[in-house]
Every structure is written in C-alpha cells, then in structure tokens.
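Bump. Still looking for SGNH/GDSL hydrolase family protein structure tokens.
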Amino acid sequence: MSKVILFQGDSVTDVDRRAEGGDGLGNGYPKLIAERLKEQNENTVVLNRGVSGNRTCDLINRWTRDCIDIKPDVLTILIGINDCWRKYDRNDETSLDAFVSNYTKLMDRSKSETDARIILMEPFVLPFPEDRKEWRVTLDPYIQAVRQFAVKYQTGLVTLDGIFSKAAIREGYTALAQDGVHPTPLGHRLIAEAWLEEYRGR
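Sorry for the wait, here they are.
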C-alpha cells in the first residue's frame, strides 16, 4: 500500500495546484518532493491541499475534509504568513493567543484522529520590500509558537525562517522570494531539500 504524504497550507504550498490540466500538485515544493520520491522509487502518493490566502482559522474550517478524511501517513503543515499579513494590509489581526489556539486545535485533531507522522514548517518572511521588516513584530512570536508545538507534540520541524535567512546571505533576498513571501523556483527547491532532509532523518 502506498504511503500518503499530505501538504497543507496557504499560497506557498498551493502554487496553482488547481490549474486546468495540472496534476494537482502545483508548481512548488510539493511537486519537487513528489518527483524526488518517484525518482527514488518510493511507494508514495503525494497530495497538495494548500489554499492560497488561508490562515490558521481557514485550516480549522476544512480540516475534516482536507486532512482527517484523507488519513495521511505523513502530514506537513506550513501556515501563518497570512495570519501575519492581514494585520498589515487589512488591519485584520490574528493575535498570538488566537494563532496558538487555532494551531492547537489543528494539532490536537491531527494527533487524536490520524496516525500521521507530522512535520511542521515555520512560516517565514524575508526583509524585502522594506515594509516586510515591520512584520517581524507579529511573525516572530508565531515562529516561536510553531517551534514550541514541535516540542510539545514531538513532531518534525523544518526551520524555514532560519534556512531562508541563511540562504539569502549567499543568494540575495529576491532570488529566493521576490516579495519576501512567495518563493521563486530556487526558494521552492530550498524548501523541498529541507523537507526531504527532515523526512529522511528518521
């Protein structure tokens, strides 16, 4: 039986996965991971259920259909940048308490209603354009919360914020994400490589 690997999140995961004529994986890191696993003859089914614009509250609303009912063997969650972004473009803030509460609901259900191995990925932002620097005030506590969830629930963790910051020293900000948020092809390769390293780690 094939191992089901499910990727959940927002536009960073979505990447046009519902485009006509596509394979449902989109054009980002989930597709790169699926291709790598296929090359290595792993018996896996990779599913992408990222939805552009989603926040933690949106994942809660679709978690039964898009996670629990799928019964994944491996579940990866990358969420949080829109919880941050909406504060700055719409004045629609997700407080840290709300973020933690929403994420806790997702984790509790995933742990109690599936047998999935869970790999969490940090939300991230690069300091370009200039206004992205202000986002750190909101995003940094979210990142710390995700790290704490990894400890509490004993999950895998891909430290994307640190990984992108380090890679940007060598590559430059816009080579990885032209708006500080949405990865370029190089940025998606960086995520895929980091995820595969965590996945192989145990």
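The longest helix spans residues 96-113.

Edit: fixed formatting.
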